[in-house]
Write a structure and sequence with these properties.
Layout (H helix, E strand, L loop, with lengths): L1 E5 L8 H16 L3 E4 L5 H12 L4 E6 H4 L10 E5 L2 H11 L2 E4 L4 H15 L7 E4 L6 H12 L5 H5 L1 E4 L2 H9 L15 E9 L1 E2 L2 E7 L9 E3 L6 H13 L2 E2 L5 E9 L7 E9 L2 E2 L8 E7 L9 H12 L5
Parallel strand pairs: 1-2, 1-5, 2-3, 3-4, 5-6, 6-7, 8-14
Antiparallel strand pairs: 8-11, 9-10, 10-16, 12-15, 13-14
Helix pairs in contact: 1-2
């Protein structure tokens, strides 16, 4: 996955902040996670970028034009997006990433992580948000959000969706098992959300998609859980029913969650699709209610349902499909 990192444009008073930033960046790069950050070359921002690049990682910067013009941009990145405003920076970073982590920082860092956390509460995305609590820097934040729950300004499920941990590996484990709660104001406004699983299968730089009988759009193979099923159990069952492939459990990796409008429903609904890559045994073939399958590139997106279009764009943006 790609992970957005919010952090300070200074190094802070404690040497552990810089050391942790360097360690975290290298750890993410070695694990194959791309980093998206604010594009600067100073403070912890510069440390994150340099350490990840040195470890062979992908580092994408997003910086407002007025900061680039002050010569604060890092010019050795994998890519640098220059945008018109701070608001545009946050929106672009959210588009490019699958999760968010705040390292030590000041008002800007807090504003960034709290805004994307708020977006998650409102159901505008289903991506995990976290504080890496280096040297206890965010102890007071943890106490404050707990206080907000006690004072009934924050629901417990939205407090629980915010990960606060001192260990990057535990934080990444929490990301892997993350499930977004129901959006705030759900039922008062906005459509119901279908919670489904999808199997990402790539061959010759093309993505496997399927179309059900009588339907117009192609989908990602997969489907809804039955009562009591885990992600893996539902995905394994649905993929076998739809395309006759037996997935290999040990190879399964969660890579993204796509959320968009659902099609073919009797009333307006949205779909939140947790997508996994996994090796499969057997040649994909139409089965059950599936009428057709197709191997698609990003150019085929108009033939797909909205959530599948998101997956195509996500894979193309990472160079995994044409």
């Amino acid at each position: 996955m790609r992970i957005a990192i919010f952090c300070g444009s200074s190094l802070g008073a404690d040497a552990r902040f810089e050391a942790s930033a360097r360690e975290v960046a290298a750890r993410l790069a070695r694990a194959g996670h791309g980093i998206v950050y604010g594009g600067g070359k100073v403070g912890l921002m510069g440390v994150i970028a340099d350490a990840a690049l040195a470890a062979g990682g992908e580092v994408i910067g997003v910086i407002p034009r007025h900061l680039q013009q002050r010569e604060l941009a890092h010019h050795g990145l994998s890519s640098l997006h220059v945008v018109d405003s701070m608001h545009a920076r946050k929106a672009r970073m959210a588009e490019l990433t699958d999760a968010f982590i705040a390292l030590p920082g000041g008002a800007g860092t807090l504003e960034e992580i709290f805004e994307v956390w708020t977006w998650a509460q409102l159901g505008l995305h289903a991506k995990p948000c976290a504080f890496l609590n280096v040297a206890g820097y965010y102890d007071a934040i943890s106490q404050f959000v707990d206080h907000a729950v006690v004072q009934r300004f924050l629901r417990a499920e939205y407090r629980d969706m915010l990960v606060i941990d001192r260990d990057i590996d535990r934080l990444l484990d929490a990301f892997a098992g993350y499930r977004a709660p129901q959006a705030k104001w759900h039922g008062a406004a906005g459509p119901e959300t279908l919670d489904v699983l999808g199997w990402i299968c790539i061959r010759d730089r093309r993505l496997l998609t399927v179309r059900s009988r009588g339907k117009e759009h192609f989908f990602i193979p997969g489907g809804k859980r039955e009562a009591g099923e885990s992600d893996w159990q539902a995905l394994e069952r649905e993929v076998h029913e739809e395309v006759g492939v037996q997935l290999v459990r040990e190879s399964a990796v969660h890579v993204m969650t796509a959320e968009d409008s659902a099609v073919g429903q009797e009333r307006p609904m949205r779909v939140a699709m947790s997508c996994y890559m996994a090796a499969g045994q057997g040649e994909p073939r139409p089965a059950a209610e599936i009428e057709d399958l197709a191997w698609m590139t990003a150019a085929d997106a108009p033939r797909c349902a909205p959530a599948a279009r998101q997956v195509l764009a996500w894979l193309a943006g990472r160079g995994l499909i044409d």
